[in-house]
Amino acid sequence: MFTRRNIVFGILLILSILFIIGNNEERIEKAQFVGNTILLPFSSSITYIKNLSNVYQRNNYLQRELFLAQNELRMLKEELSKHQRFEELVENIDISGYEFLIADVIGTGSFLNYETLIIDAGKNKSILVNQPVISEKGLVGKVIAVYQNYAVVQTFGNKYFRLGAIDSRSRIHGIVETELNGKIYFEKIKVGSDLKTGDLIVSSKLSSIYPPELPFGKIVEIEQSSEGLFTRAVIEPFVNLANIEAVAIIQNYEK
């Protein structure tokens, strides 16, 4: 039985005999023929494979560089977004007397009313329970639990949220509360009080946690209580908890 080695040996033997037969000119012609028809295509194939390998390595290198560049661009965009939010925060809220820390929102405890948010700052950033939390739009809530590298924020979407507030136009005091259905009210207002739709509601000096004059929302509807003793207003908050990405934790402020 012929093996592959025997076949190759036979081909080489035949070629050797062919090269021996004939005069010098004939042998040169045979060598040129073999070189042009066998060796040259083989050599070209080897060169092509080498070039293909180089192209493959170059492609891998370029893909790696592209990934690193895209990652760096993403980080730059995030930093720019943070800077823009900080500028908007300074523009909308007087923070001259605040010491605060910017943190990213990395999770939520409930998608129904976004009752809690998880931020990427905790004991490692000196975050404490009951520290107020705001965004560039206005008041968000307060810290209710702190862990080593993250903290939990109770938002105004939580049914236990309470805020001592005031109508910025008429200076009427009341309490902001959130009902189970997520509707937010400016409560405990005497009937006949000077409330109007469009009035801005801000935190008041009566709040034991939040600094005064933090923007919260605006009145969109006024309702009378069933007893007829009090009135209340439906509040539309300035902050949209569904798309909030970063917050500022107020760590100290002048009281």
Structure description:
- With about 260 residues, this protein is of the alpha+beta class.
- The protein folds into three domains: about 1-90; about 100-155 and about 245-255, Rod shape-determining protein MreC, domain 1 (Thrombin, subunit H, Beta Barrel), CATH 2.40.10; about 160-240, Thrombin, subunit H (Beta Barrel).
- It has two helices and twelve strands.
- It has helices spanning about 5-20, 25-90, and strands at about 100-110, 115-120, 130-135, 140-145, 150-155, 160-165, 175-180, 185-190, 200-205, 215-225, 230-235, 245-255.
- The chain has a six-stranded antiparallel β-barrel with strand order 1-2-5-4-3-12. A six-stranded antiparallel beta barrel has the order 6-7-8-11-10-9.
- A hairpin with a 5-residue loop joins strand 6 (about 160-165) and strand 7.
- The radius of gyration is 38 Å and the shape is rod-shaped.
- It starts with a helix and ends with a strand.
- The mean pLDDT is about 80.
Kindly list the characteristics that best describe this protein.
rod-shaped; alpha+beta; Thrombin, subunit H
Short description:
This protein is of the alpha+beta class.
**SSE topology string:** HHEEEEEEEEEEEE
- Estimate the helix proportion, in percent: 25-40%
List unreliable stretches of 5+ residues: none
The shape is: rod-shaped
Q: Main β-sheet, in a few words?
A: 6 strands, antiparallel, barrel
DSSP strand (E) fraction?
A: 25-35%
Q: What number of domains?
A: 3
Query: In which order are the strands of the major sheet placed?
Result: 1-2-5-4-3-12
Write down how many β-strands occur, each being a DSSP E stretch of 2 or more residues: 12
Going by helix content, strand content and strand pairing, the class is alpha+beta
End-to-end distance, in Å?
101 Å
Alpha plus pi helix count? 2
Which radius of gyration do the C-alpha atoms yield?
38 Å
* Overall pLDDT metric: 81
